[in-house]
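[audit] Reproducing an earlier prediction to check determinism. Same input, same settings, fresh worker. If the tokens differ from the archived copy the diff job will pick it up downstream; this log only records the rerun itself.
[audit] input (247 residues):
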Amino acid sequence: MSGGEESILTVAREVHQALLPKEVPTIQGLDLSGATIPAYAVGGDYFDFLAADGALFAVVADVMGKGLKAALLMLGLRSTLRSVVRLKADHRAILEHLNALVGEDLSRNGAFATLCLGTIYPGKGQVVLTNAGHCPPLLVRGGTSAFLPCRGVALGLLGGPPSVETLSLDLTAGDTLLFYTDGLVEARSPEGQKFGRARLAEAATALGHLPAQTIKERLLELLEEFTAGGGQRDDVTLAVVKLQEGR
């Protein structure tokens, strides 16, 4: 790699890291944590937390591919989504508007993006979820957990409005929502075994009583142990949203 290419990657990495949340928003009744670990210098994963009118918009997205190209497309997706979320509250409208603005850029570059968006209302104890071709979020409640059935088509795959489903459900104090990218569940052990959703659900259920930051850290530690230092094949992103007791 030439010095010029290294400089470009260095700048891209710095921009990528600068745009990830350094501090989570303070919203009464919610405990938040998240992390993105790129497989290379930069990547196409990201997560974000946005506060608006007492609600939290939590998003995890994954632009197909790795490296600088995926990172640049991700940055465009992130900035557009932040603008759209501030203008529109309805999830279907957000996804339709987002696909209209960035879908052509993605498809023109032979790419697409998956995305899971959740709006959490801690005062009401409710969450609204929309999934555009992304991994299903995981709900941990007490000693149980379940992947939430919410489906849709990834951004950039259709010329018109994306086909999405919206799921609304009630939350209770202590509930934890996990948003993640496929780099987590598809990570492999040295023997080639996938980390998998079942392993994620089992671990998250056991950790569900802990604070969001600890849940995130323990899950990433478990992933590192599972892969035995073999390195990442894909970007890994994890965002944890916990409804606090006594809200």
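[audit] rerun output stored. Observation attached for the diff report: Residues 62 and 117 are 12 Å apart (CA to CA).
[audit] end
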